[in-house]
Amino acid sequence: MATDHYIPQSLLRRFADHDKGGNLNVLDKISGRVFHPRVEDFGIEDFHTFSSDLRQELESGELPTLESLIGEKFESPAAPLLASVIASSTLEGLAPAERQVIIEFIALQYVRVPGRMFDLRSALARGFGDQEPARTLRVFGTPTKPDQLRDVGLLGIPIDAVGLANVLRRAHLALALAPGDLAVVGDNPVIVHSYLELSENVYPAFLVSALGSDAFLPISPRHILYLHTASDAITGTCGRTLPGPLHLSADAMNYLNGLQGKAAVRYVVMPRQDQEAQLKVDISTQTVDNFDFKRAFG
C-alpha cells in the first residue's frame, strides 16, 4: 500500500508545526479533534492507483504511475520557482515559461483534490440518474474493484490541469503576503471567489477560470499565489504579472482563511448542521468592498 498525496509534500512541509516535531496540525472535520500526522503520512492509501480491471488489461510498462507523472510534470518544475518566490517575496523576474509552470501548479492543486473529484463524480451521477457518491476521501472508491469512472477520473487529473492552465494563462498573477504568517491551507487548497452572482444549483466545474473570478493558493503561512481573471480577458492572451507583493490586512486574511474553512466543510464530509451555515454567516459579515483584490490590477 502506498500513501499518495493529493496535496504535495513540498507544500505541506511549509505548514508543518516545528514545535510539534515538524508535524502538521490537522483538524478532523467530523469530531473537531486536532491531530498531528507526519507530512509523509498525510495522504490516502493508493489514491492514485488505477482500478483492477485497467491494471489487468494493460502491461505494467504501458500504465503510467500517476504519482510519478504528477511529480515529474508539475511538482518538480514548480518546486524551485516556489522556493525562490517564498525566499524573495516577489514575482519579479519570472520568465513567461516560469510563470506558466506556476499557473500549471495552481491548476493541478485545483483539479486533483477529493472535493473536485466529488463534484465531478456527483455531476456524472446526476446526469445518468445514478445515486451520488458518499462524501468521503475515497470518492473514487478503491483500486481493488473494477471501476471505469475511477480510471477516467484519475487519468483526467494531468489532462485537466494542463487544459485549465492554458485557459488561466489569461489571468493576472500576483503574490499576496499574509500578516503574521496567518495563512492556512485546507484539503481543497485553491479557493475561488467570484464577483458574479451564481445560483445555488449551478455546477461550477471550472469556476476558477470564469471571467471576473479570484483564485488563491497559500504556498506558505505568509505567501499566497493570487490569480485574477479580468471580466474582459480573452482566451489565448497572457495576463499581467504583478512583480511586487500585495500586503494583506488582518481582516482580508481572516476572510481568505474563512473561505478555506468553507471549502473544507463543503467537501469530503457531510457538514454538521451548524458548520457551513455559521461559516457563511461569518464570511458574509465581512464587507465585500474591503476585499476587492482585483483593484491591484486596475
List unreliable stretches of 5+ residues.
Answer: none
Radius of gyration: 19 Å
Query: How large a portion of the residues is in β-strands, by DSSP E?
Result: 5-15%
Query: Roughly what is the average pLDDT, rounded to an integer?
Result: 80
Following the backbone from N to C, one meets helices and strands in this order, namely EHEEEHHHHHEEEEEHH
User: What's the helical proportion of residues?
Assistant: 25-40%
- Spatial arrangement of strands, main beta sheet: 6-7-8-5-9
Structural class, from secondary structure content? alpha+beta
Task: Return the domain count.
Answer: 1
Report the sheet with the most strands, covering strand number, pairing sense and barrel closure.
5 strands, mixed
Quaternary form: single chain
The total strand number stands at 9
Total helical segments: 8
* Spatial shape: globular
Molecular structure report:
This protein has 8 helices and 9 strands. The chain has 298 residues and is of the alpha+beta class. It has one domain (3-288). The strands form 3 sheets. A 5-stranded mixed sheet has the order 6-7-8-5-9. Helix 4 packs antiparallel against helix 6 (148-168) and helix 7 packs antiparallel against helix 8 (275-284). The chain is globular and about 55 Å long.
